[in-house]
Amino acid sequence: MDFSASKNAQKRIAVERIRTLFREAEGMFDKRPDLCQRYIELAKKISLKYKVAIPDHFKRRMCKKCYSFLIPGKTCRIRTHQGKLVYFCIGCKSMTRVPIKK
User: Fold this and answer.
1) What is the pLDDT of residues 31-57, one digit of tens each?
2) Is 100 left (phi over 0), alpha (psi -120 to 50) or beta?
3) C-alpha angle 77-79-82 in degrees, rounded to nearest 5
4) Domains along the sequence of the chain with CATH
5) CB-based contacts of 65, cutoff 8 Å, min separation 6
6) At what angle do helices 3-28 and 33-49 cross, to 10 degrees?
7) Other CB atoms within 10 Å distance of the CB of residue 23
8) Class of residue 68 by CB neighbours under 10 A (exposed 0-12, middle 13-18, buried 19+)
9) Stated pTM of the model
C-alpha cells in the first residue's frame, strides 16, 4: 500500500479547502463577521492537522494571535515603517511586520 500518494492527495485537498475558506470569509465579512472568524479558525486548524502551510497572501489576511480576518480600515491598520509593512490588529492590539521587497 502506498501511503505517500494518499498523503499528497490529502495535502492538496487541505490547501484547496484553506483557499475556499478564505474566499468565503471575504464574502461573508459584511454580512456575518462571526462566521468569517470561524472560517479563519477552521483554515488554521486544517493547516495544523495536515501540516500544510497557509499561502502567504492568505496568511497576511489573518491575525496570528486572535485569528481574526484582517480587513484594512475595519479590523486592522496598515502602516509602513522603516521598510516594513506593519499590520496592527484592532481586536487584540497585536502587530505583524512584513518586509517590503524592493
Assistant:
1) 888 898 899 999 999 999 999 999 888
2) beta
3) 150
4) 3-99 (1.20.5.420)
5) 89, 92, 94
6) 160
7) 12
8) buried
9) 0.81
